[in-house]
Write a structure and sequence with these properties.
Strand content: 15-25%
Domain Beta-lactamase-related: 50-349
Structural class: alpha+beta
CATH superfamily: DD-peptidase/beta-lactamase superfamily
Distance between the termini: 24 Å
InterPro entries: AmpC-like, Beta-lactam-related, Beta-lactam/transpept-like
Pfam family, one: Beta-lactamase
Order of helices and strands: HHEEEHHHHHHEEEHHEEEEH
EC number: 3.4.16.4
Signal peptide: 1-26
Helix content: 25-40%
């Protein structure tokens, strides 16, 4: 990848990070984008209570919404509302870790055993790199949890899960493959361990490190690492999960919940504007060195589309975009940018589980990037 404006984030360069402009950041808003609005309406019709999106390109900035912010009301989705970003968190955490690598405070080939002795079986064979690119083989702890629509899921709504608990549930199961590094299998467990490694390396929580290394320097005012706090502050759409009761499936408002179950790889709260700004800064080289960004965009296994906390996809017009997507139970989000940052798109929705909106989201992303 060819990039410009290489500035590392340190205490002395934070102002430079803020000042360096991304390509697609013009704040002139073009309201007349019927193709985008129609595609966004299709997303809601396919299975969402509401949706919101921001597109940045040569025409300026387009923000749109569809559906409602809360079931049973006519309240519009706030165009700059906040939502749970799910696994987009992984890209933020990976950025913080790669900054630590740039600073020489840890290495990608360090083993889990070196940082967290006894945390996982055969931890001396699993590296930080393999945790980042999902080639560790560690069982995904989310597969061990009671999930919707099982009504028992709601019993844990306010429960605080520790990292040790989540990892313990995972390693009670055998690896999904052997040896580590030989295959790709998505695992949230790896990112829980990465959060613990950050704490060991810095003496601060992973949330604090993400705040000081990414959120504050980029002035992402709508973004936060909530920890165990159940609320989403500020304007936001309500999110829902399905639950079975008396033989029927009902939607339960799940906007407020203890996000510790999402762990270090899923707790982020953000906005469409902030995610676009973050991905642009990342691809522009304002957060990482050239070497680290090159590694971030290199898959762990040939043929996969996931590197070190960063994913990519090819649109219908053949243009490759980089970013990530996230599923936070009651919220789903996608945030991608072209390599040159001239086209950026972030969309978030609150699913109603009546259908699968993935195809319509893909169509929206294609419309935003390809026109």
């Amino acid at each position: 990848m060819k990039r410009v404006s290489r500035v590392l984030v340190t205490a002395t360069t934070a102002l430079a990070v803020v000042a360096a402009p991304a390509v697609a950041t013009a704040e002139s808003e073009d309201e007349d984008r019927p193709g985008l609005q129609s595609r966004l309406d299709d997303v809601v019709a396919a299975g969402a209570v509401g949706a919101l999106a921001e597109v940045r390109d040569e025409h300026g900035v387009w923000r749109g919404t569809s559906g409602v912010a809360e079931r049973g009301t006519t309240r519009e989705v706030p165009a700059q509302g906040r939502f749970r970003a799910g696994s987009v968190t992984k890209t933020f955490l990976a950025t913080a870790i790669l900054q630590l690598v740039d600073e020489g405070r840890l290495r990608l080939d360090d083993t889990v055993e070196e940082w967290l002795p006894g945390a996982v079986p055969d931890g001396d064979r699993i590296t930080v790199r393999q945790l980042l690119n999902h080639t560790s083989g560690l069982y995904d702890y989310r597969k061990t949890l009671t999930l919707p629509p099982d009504p028992e899921f709601l019993d844990n709504r306010w429960r605080t899960w520790t990292a040790d608990e989540l990892v313990g549930r995972a390693v009670a199961n055998p690896p999904t493959f052997e040896p580590p590094g030989s295959e790709y299998e998505y695992s949230n467990t790896g990112y829980v361990l990465l959060g613990q490694i950050v704490e060991e390396a810095t003496g601060r929580s992973y949330g604090e490190e993400i705040e000081r290394r990414v959120i504050q320097p980029l002035r992402l005012s709508g973004t936060a690492m909530p920890g165990e706090s159940p609320r989403i502050g500020g304007p936001h759409p309500h999110g829902y999960v399905p639950t079975e009761r008396d033989g029927d499936t009902h939607l339960v408002d799940f906007t407020e919940m203890n996000p510790s179950v999402l762990g270090a790889g899923g707790e982020l709260i953000s906005t469409t504007k902030d995610l676009n700004q973050f991905v642009a800064a990342l691809l522009d080289g304002r957060l990482l060195s050239d070497d680290r960004l090159d590694e971030m965009t290199t898959p762990g296994v040939e043929g996969e589309t996931y590197g070190l906390g960063l994913a990519w996809r090819d649109t219908s017009c053949g243009v490759r975009v980089y970013g990530n997507d996230g599923d936070a139970l009651a919220y789903q989000s996608w945030s991608y940018s072209t390599e040159d940052r001239r086209h950026q798109v972030t969309i978030a929705l609150t699913p109603d589980f009546s259908g699968d909106p993935d195809d319509t989201v893909d169509a929206f992303l294609d419309e935003a990037i390809c026109g």
